[in-house]
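Look at one such:
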Amino acid sequence: MNIACLTCAKAFQHAGADAAGFAILFLLAVIVPVITTVGILIFRIARREKEHFDPQYSDSFDS
């Protein structure tokens, strides 16, 4: 059904030609760098932990 899309399109004509598209673009412009930064930080933390790992704290899988 295209009823919702037509309704939204008519409602956003007053705010601009493509206000919903600009809102989605803005949210992506905010969310993507945040997720990228978190991913880089996780990678750096894991790499540093691996470099400075003390083997005496390793779990043995022998029960």
Remarks:
- The helical segments are 3-11, 19-51.
- Residues 56 and 62 are 15 Å apart (CA to CA).
- The first helix runs from residue 3 to 11.
- The two ends are 60 Å apart (CA to CA).
